[in-house]
Amino acid sequence: MHKACSNPTIKIEPDNRKFNKISLPKLNWNCPGFTLIELLVVMAIIATLLSIVAPRYFKSLDRSKETVLRQDLNIMRDAIDKFYGDTGKYPLSLDELVERRYLRAVPVDPLTESAETWVVISPPNDTEGVYDVHSGSPEKAQDGTPYEAW
Fold first, then answer.
1. 142 in helix, strand or coil?
2. How far apart are the first and last CA of the chain?
3. Does the structure show a pLDDT above 80 at 16?
């Protein structure tokens, strides 16, 4: 077990002469601690581990955003289908699904981080309404397909 190191102090002792006597403490080389080399080696190991982990972390963030987008699209498409099944027409906007309580709220697009960027597709027979919904993000997914095509 190592003896605890104390902080060195400078003592000034009064002397009868014109100048005071200053005694400096002796250096204690047996004091436990880390050398600069040891600290640099530890920092290099940490940097290496971070360079391995960081890309995986960001890839998992992208995967989770894609999963949330797929789930949000499925929920909104299911609500549109239920609305059509109940009323015989498509909703005029996504907000109408919220007003009629088919959705609690229009979900936020996880890629654009806004609930206002959804791309609304009209029905094929040129009637008004929301037939389908796509993401408003111009980016591409990890599999190479654009998010607008999901």
1. coil
2. 65
3. no
109 is written with which tokens?
A: 């697009």
Residue 132: closest CA among 118, 145, 144, 146: 118
The contacts of residue 106 (CB under 8 Å, 6+ apart) are 76, 94, 95, 97, 98, 115, 118
Cβ atoms of 129 and 122 closer than 8 Å: yes
Q: Are 149 and 70 in contact (CB under 8 A)?
A: no
Radius of gyration over alpha carbons of the chain, in Å? Answer: 34
Alpha-carbon distance of 110 to 69, in angstroms, equals: 6
What's the pLDDT tens digit per position in 117-130? 999 999 988 788 99
Query: Which residue stretches of 8-150 are H helix?
Result: 36-87, 94-99
82 near 102, Cβ under 8 Å?
yes
Q: Tell me the three state secondary structure of residue 79.
A: helix
**Dist CA 29 CA 6 (whole Å):** 12
Predicted TM-score of the model (pTM): 0.68
Q: What share of the chain is helix, strand, coil (3-state, %, to 5)?
A: 40, 10, 50
